[in-house]
Amino acid sequence: MVTPSERGPLPDLLIEPVVRAALLEDLGRGGDITTDSLVPPDRTARAEVVARREGVVAGARVAALAFRLLDARVIATPRFTDGQPVRAGDAILTLDGPARALLSAERVALNFLGHLSGIATETARMVAAVQGTRARIACTRKTTPGLRALEKYAVRVAGGINHRLGLDDAVLIKDNHIAVMGGITAAIAAARAHTGHMTRIQVEVDSLDQLDEALAAAPDAILFDNMSPETLAEGVRRVAGRAITEASGGITPDHVAAVAASGVDVISVGWLTHSAPSLDVSLDMRAPT
């Protein structure tokens, strides 16, 4: 698992290809014909990116990069760092520079900032909901294709942790693997024979009978899939500290506290990255300079 302290801000080298691709998608073959026909090339402007409701910021640097990629003369000054809370009306980012770049990059910048801040906002809400328990909130691989690094970063800055970043991080034996292999015992044995001593092995179980079989093979972690809080509590009792315990399956902010009360170590929530609503943000232009 990855904690916020173990990974710092994403480098521009990683996020630039994603932002550049989004700009190319929006500008198409002819560029911003609205702005180019209305705004003189030498016109400069000042603008603010403003939160329209309260939330947690993530992606301020990503948004700033969108403007700078269109024109390196744009000066983008974040007023809040990723992971900080904002209120409605707060200016997250101030911008000074060529007006054409500010207008043409607006939608791409706001798309990234709103989406990532929405993930961070909901992550922070879930982290707060399980405060006082041992559970930590983790995201999953249910991410937007091409945006995984950014979305998982948004989870981290809000106090969550990441499950696997990809298939090559660790072994996670799920129900379909078990079906193909003919059982949990055979699946864990095959994984242990194939991987090195530094690779962790986790197995998914959907019943207490499967849990007992899994524990006999001594995996590093157990993933309880779609279990009630009462069954989870019994599962945690049976594990008795012999493996990391994780709950997953349809968990939302409405019942995450009940899941955490079972005593599991980790709660993984696909909802955070595939369904969290965007934070409402806008670009407000100031008087021309």
Fold and architecture overview:
The protein folds into 2 domains: 4-123 and 277-285, Aldehyde Oxidoreductase, domain 3; 128-274, TIM Barrel (Alpha-Beta Barrel), CATH 3.20.20.70. It is 42% helix and 19% strand. The chain contains 12 helices and 13 strands. The chain has helices at 12-27, 33-38, 60-70, 99-104, 106-129, 148-157, 175-181, 184-194, 208-216, 229-239, 256-260, 271-274; strands at residues 44-51, 55-56, 75-78, 85-86, 91-98, 136-139, 161-162, 171-173, 201-205, 221-225, 244-248, 266-268, 281-285. The radius of gyration is 23 Å and the shape is elongated. It starts with 11 loop residues before the first helix and ends with a strand. Keywords: Glycosyltransferase, Pyridine nucleotide biosynthesis, Transferase. Hexamer formed by 3 homodimers.
Number of domains: 2
Q: Give the helix/strand class.
A: alpha/beta
CATH topology of the largest domain: TIM Barrel
Q: Which stretches of 5+ consecutive residues score pLDDT under 50?
A: 1-6
Rg, alpha carbons:
23 Å
Q: Helical residue percent?
A: 40-55%
The description of the largest β-sheet is: 7 strands, parallel
- CA distance, first residue to last residue: 49 Å
| Fraction in beta strands | 15-25%
CATH architectural grouping of the largest domain: Alpha-Beta Barrel
Q: What is the CATH first-level class name of the largest domain? A: Alpha Beta
The CATH superfamily of the largest domain turns out to be Aldolase class I
Average per-residue pLDDT, rounded, comes to 95
Number of strands: 13
